[in-house]
Design goal:
The complex is a heterodimer of chains A (about 575) and B (about 290).
Chain A lengths: L9 E5 L8 E6 L2 E7 L5 E5 L13 E2 L3 E3 L6 E3 L5 E3 L16 E2 L2 E3 L2 E4 L17 E2 L3 E3 L3 H10 L8 E3 L3 E5 L7 E10 L2 E8 L6 H25 L15 H5 L11 E12 L2 E8 L12 E5 L5 E5 L9 E7 L7 H8 L5 E4 L14 E7 L3 H13 L4 E7 L8 H5 L5 E5 L3 H11 L7 E7 L1 H13 L7 E5 L12 E5 L4 E5 L5 H7 L17 E6 L2 E2 L7 H6 L2 E3 L4 E2 L3 E4 L2
Parallel strand pairs in A: 24-25, 24-27, 25-26, 27-28, 29-35
Antiparallel strand pairs in A: 1-11, 2-3, 3-4, 4-9, 5-6, 6-7, 7-8, 10-11, 12-17, 13-17, 14-15, 15-16, 16-17, 18-19, 18-23, 19-22, 20-21, 20-23, 29-30, 31-33, 31-35, 32-34
Helix pairs in contact in A: 1-2
Chain B lengths: L7 H4 L3 E5 L9 E5 L2 E7 L5 E5 L5 E3 L1 E4 L2 E4 L20 E10 L3 H9 L4 H4 L16 E5 L4 E11 L10 E11 L2 E7 L7 E9 L6 E9 L6 H19 L7 E2 L12 H12 L6 E2 L4
Parallel strand pairs in B: 15-16
Antiparallel strand pairs in B: 1-7, 2-3, 3-4, 4-5, 6-7, 8-14, 9-10, 10-11, 11-12, 12-13, 13-14
Classes of the chains: A alpha+beta (about 575), B alpha+beta (about 290).
Chain lengths: ~575, ~290
């Protein structure tokens, strides 16, 4: 007796079941599957259940790089099944690693193969052969009975090659000597699909297919009649694995400044004058889910850590593409990458982190990029373009030679405009024009050099843009950080009181005392170390917070900001 | 394995079985409640009778409230939860339909409490992209622990009701005064000071099947009864295919079964409240 639950690969769909932007409803061993092909050709086999509220993903929408659940519009990325967007909370990046359950997928011989439970490495059952897939035939009978009937139906005195666990190559009686390989897909304890592959041979192809169809249909009638007469086996119970505790209880996951991922430099290209592009590829499988606007920390061979925005479009998880501006005057981060790192080198990077999340609930999104500031906005524009949402991307650069990503930008259609060689007055005139009217539910994202950001924020405010509709990301904090004061911090949740001496940051004092705190740029620009202030007045030295957030005294960045009062109470 | 006995919170409770206007005169009709056959009818004296269709037939208590006939397998309280608005003279009270759905009663209630699906399931009526945000709201257990109450719920709606002519931010209050019933108060497009009432009363015909009875108590004096019914049935008709594609069909009470977000606060409290009351039908109880 075949142990159906033994680890094994089974065919679960035909390649033909996966036309453009379709989601196919499959089933294997009682477990329902949502099977879909992304526009990049990758086949996804996922549990057929959105883990938010259990709605089948097979009724979801294949957007080409993301699958969108019908119920609440949650988006899940190609390959990782990681959640990239939750429309009910459009201003937040899904902070927790929400991912649907995935199953392995291999496409071979016009069939999609998968496995539930523990999975051995895939071995092609018919290596080096190119056989023709037959029409799949669903049979309401136990898989073992179907396999038995196939074996019984072979031409007398012909050989059988077993294809474990539920298949065989054989010559069916009446098949005029034509060999075929049959795989029985165990749908459930009493449901099967016969998936056949036909040996190439002579004869009218249509006639051959019709003959096989007749033989197999008659076989189905026999097996189903026998199954009806026998007691029905108990259906398999689908396994609904519980989500992790942190997903169920909703705390934010803290990602420290840790280089948890290893990537290989797969390509290094000159993107523009003084700008080098790096393709950072996964060493195996795919990289973690990211959202538009997200960045990674790159740990450099010289010990420095630098932040770079991911420029990829949705669902592109085989590599992260980043762009690095060569800045000879800087501390050596960009030089180390541009000059020292070569193709094939392995780099340590952090998981993607998003402090610049893209809302997808705007009636129109305005993206303003200055120079290398195009990087996070390119990822946003790709996501908006793919979902058919209205946006305008304005890229400012000294000349066409200074603007990276000309080709991908051109692919984004009419929403993209480039502006070259404007003097400060010209830039201001154009920005003022672009920012003329905030309109209804429009959002503005701006990334670029500090003077451009300051100007844009000033003009937006003057034009009446609400503060919460203006989103910005600085490359770095150019302010001179004052570190001369000393004060006390009380950690409300950890019940600790610590002294912060002159010359040390709050973040460093936390680390010295064994408290794991997330951080990234450590210069007050990225917002990763944002902390709630319960009492006391912070001395803000960052460029991340909005004016009203600053004045509220309810939050601060612990990497650079200090205290105006002798004591700060923090929610840590 | 014999089914576990019904929890007192369900046994000693009123359950709806029919719209009063559909109770036959001098004849009887049958339906299912908790998988058991129940008969009902109105006698020549005008009185309503309900009985268990077993041998011998067992009389069951009967209550006429909010346009529906209610019964119980245990010892129910004297009266049902209060919906005082129903008695207000200027309202139009409508039985808007009794619709069978292949899902458990608690899943249907949870869907009724949910605002996040409006733009996706009730597109261009109760919601529309890009206005997808579920703003923060308040949830509490009120009425001595007997009711879940969600207040300050706001959502942008293109056509909140038949009388609505343009999009507006609508305010909702949700009550769950019964494990399988919910009452929704919604700002009225015609009267800013008062609210329309829409209620769902679920009849658990089985663990994974339900008849959803809809009740409206509207301030709308313009639209005909058929128009009001049609609008409500169209809305519910959009929910139904979603509900019938939810797995598992019974509502899992283990917090780790699914992934809640802030917008699901009312559902989180509702699931916990069902656990507290020991509700054991139409749910997958939390493992001990």
């Amino acid at each position: 007796m075949t142990n159906l639950r033994a680890p094994a690969w089974h065919p679960v769909a035909s390649s033909e079941d996966l036309p453009f932007r379709h989601v196919f409803h499959g089933q294997l061993l009682g477990q329902e599957l949502a099977i879909w092909r992304a526009d990049d050709g990758n086949v996804n086999v996922w549990e057929n259940r959105c883990l938010h509220r259990g709605v089948r993903l097979s009724i979801g929408i294949n957007e080409g790089a993301e699958l969108k659940c019908q119920y609440h519009g949650w988006r899940y990325a190609n390959r990782s099944a990681g959640c990239t967007y939750i429309p009910a909370h459009p201003a937040d990046a899904p902070a927790r690693r929400i991912a649907n359950r995935t199953y392995p997928a291999v496409e071979r011989h016009g069939l999609v193969w998968s496995a539930v439970g523990e999975t051995p490495a895939f071995e092609d059952p018919l290596p080096d052969l190119d056989w023709l897939p037959l029409r799949p035939l669903p049979v309401d009978a136990p898989p073992e009975a179907v396999l038995g009937a196939l074996l019984d139906a072979r031409q007398a005195d012909t050989p059988v090659d077993a294809l474990p666990p539920l298949g065989a190559t054989l010559i069916l009686d009446g098949a005029e000597g034509r060999r075929a390989a049959f795989f029985v897909q165990p749908v459930d304890s009493a449901r099967s699909v016969i998936r056949g592959l036909l040996e190439p041979g002579a004869g009218d192809p249509l006639g051959v297919l019709q003959r096989f169809n007749r033989i197999l249909s008659a076989l189905r009638d026999r097996v189903e009649a026998a199954a009806l007469a026998a007691p029905a086996p108990v259906p398999m119970t689908p396994v609904y694995e519980p989500v992790s505790v942190e997903l169920a209880t909703m705390p934010d996951i803290t990602i420290g400044r840790r280089a948890t991922l290893r990537v290989a430099v797969a390509a290094k290209t000159d993107l523009a004058e003084g700008i080098v592009g790096f393709e950072l590829a996964a060493l195996a499988g795919h990289l973690p889910t990211f959202q538009p606007g997200a960045h990674i920390d790159v740990h450099l061979p010289n010990g420095l850590v630098r932040q770079y925005s991911i420029t990829n479009g949705p669902g592109e998880l085989l590599h992260y593409d980043i762009a690095v501006k060569r800045e000879p005057a800087s501390a050596g981060g960009s030089l180390a990458l541009c000059d020292t790192v070569r193709v094939g080198d392995v780099l340590a990077i952090s998981e993607p982190r998003n402090n610049f999340p893209l809302r997808r609930d705007a009636t129109h999104t305005l993206l303003l990029a200055g120079g290398i500031g195009i990087t996070p906005l390119l990822s946003m524009a790709k996501a908006l373009h793919r979902s058919g949402l209205s946006f305008g991307l304005h890229a400012f650069a000294r000349s066409p030679r200074h603007l990276p990503y000309n080709e991908p930008l051109a692919a984004l259609g009419e929403g993209v405009a480039t502006h070259f060689g404007l003097d400060p007055a010209g830039t201001e005139r154009l920005l003022a024009e672009l920012l003329q009217s905030p309109g209804f539910a429009r959002h503005l994202y701006v990334c670029g050099p500090a003077p451009m950001l300051e100007l844009t924020r000033r003009l937006a405010e003057a034009a009446g843009w609400p503060e919460e509709a203006v989103h910005f990301e600085y490359f770095r904090n150019d302010r001179v950080i004052e570190k001369g004061t000393s004060f006390t911090i009380e950690l409300a949740r950890s019940a600790l009181t610590l002294g912060v001496p002159a010359g040390k940051s709050i973040l460093e004092v936390l680390r010295d005392n064994g408290i794991e705190a997330p951080s990234s740029c450590e210069q007050g620009a990225c917002g990763t170390c944002l902390t709630t202030v319960l009492d006391g007045i912070p001395d803000h030295q960052d460029v991340y917070l909005h004016g009203s957030e600053r004045q509220s005294n309810r939050c601060m960045l612990t990497c650079v900001s200090r205290a105006r009062t002798p004591r700060l109470v923090l929610d840590i | 394995m014999p089914p576990a006995p019904l929890a007192p919170a369900l046994l000693d409770q009123w359950h709806p079985i029919s719209a009063l206007e559909a109770v036959p005169q001098r004849r009887s009709a049958g339906t299912l409640l908790f998988g058991e056959r129940v008969g009902y009818g109105r006698g020549p004296d005008g009185g309503v009778a309900v009985w268990r269709q077993a041998a011998p037939e067992v009389p069951l208590p009967a209550l006429e409230r909010y346009g529906y006939l209610w019964t119980s397998f245990g010892r129910p309280p004297d009266d049902l939860f209060a919906v005082p608005e129903y008695a207000e003279p200027d309202r139009v009270n409508v039985c808007a339909g009794s619709i069978g759905v292949n899902v458990s009663a608690p899943r249907a209630i949870e869907n009724f409490l949910d605002m996040g699906h409006f733009p996706y399931v009730h597109t261009d009526i109760l919601g529309a992209e890009p206005h997808t945000e579920v703003k923060d709201y308040d949830v509490a257990i009120s009425n001595d622990g007997n009711e879940v109450l969600a207040t300050r719920c706001r959502f942008w709606q293109p056509q909140a009701a038949l009388t609505a002519t343009e999009g507006l931010e609508v305010e909702y209050v949700y009550r769950v005064p019964h494990p399988y019933c919910s009452v929704l108060y919604k700002s009225s497009p015609t009267d800013v000071a008062r609210m329309d009432v829409i209620a769902i009363f679920c009849q658990p015909t089985g663990e994974e099947t339900v008849r959803a009875h809809l009740m409206l108590s509207m301030l709308d004096q313009e639209n005909s009864l058929p128009a009001l019914r049609r609008f409500q049935q169209m809305i519910f008709g959009q929910d139904r295919p979603i509900l019938e594609n939810q797995y598992p069909k019974r509502l899992p009470l283990d917090p780790r079964a699914e992934t809640p977000i802030r917008a699901d606060k009312s559902a989180i409290v509702y699931r916990r409240w069902l656990s507290t009351h020991g509700v054991n039908y139409g749910v997958i109880p939390q493992a001990a």
